[in-house]
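Exercise (ungraded).
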Amino acid sequence: MDWKKFSIAFFAAFGFIFVFGFIWYGTLMQGAHQEVPMLFRPKPDFPWLILGHIVMAFFLTLLCAKFVPAGGAGTCALLGLFVALVYVGAHLITFAVEPITSKILWGWNVGALVQFAVAGAIIGVIYKPASPVTVRV
Amino acid sequence: MKRFIFASIAAFIFIFFWGWFYNGMVVKDASAEVQNLFRPREEMMDLFYWIIIGQAGLALSFVMIYVSGFAGDGIAGGVRLGIMLEILAVSVRCWVYATQPFPAKLLVLISVGGFIEMIVTGLIVGAIHKPAAVRTS
């Protein structure tokens, strides 16, 4: 593993995930979240929020670096999209058990798809090993 | 394709029964402590089809990711993928803890169940969808 490229890809992915999360979930979806105030804290607990972003960026980078070793924006974006679909499934389950509105559900789903696909593409562009690699099928 | 379909169906069946057992038996008391954050039981039952769709989507996405990069390692690859996806899910639970008033105990319990669920799903998928070949490019 090329740790230098890995680190750059990780920081770039973290930066994007954090900024996108702030704009999408924290700003654009704020009105939708306020429709069910009992489900949300008045103020987010930032250390946990940042830790979540760090872990997510690290393991998404690891997933791309280990299992799409050839890199490339398209392939890693596709992997990101597949990972996002796991969350879409989890959000649908959340919708059935928590009193969130359908606006929140589809907002979270669109957010996850964009966030993971773009983060995957960023990782794929940065993490490209120079030497030929083994591809698993 | 046949193995893909069998693996997806088997993963879905396991996820469904595990969810029913774990959430219905193990997490039941912890969730009852924050009943105000969940829908009433009748409402959940009306929306039960979303749980089925969500779990089916989750199983399908798992197998798609497995096939796109983990299939070469068989069961070990499936288990590794399960662990990585659950770590990503834990990162989302850090966001949930930061923004929603769920007690840490409940989220830890859900995460423990999530690890078991994803590891066993990986085991099942890896056992059904055996590696075809390893090639270099």
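Further reading is listed at the end of the chapter. For now, observe: The radius of gyration of chain A is 16 Å. The beta strands of chain A are 134-136.
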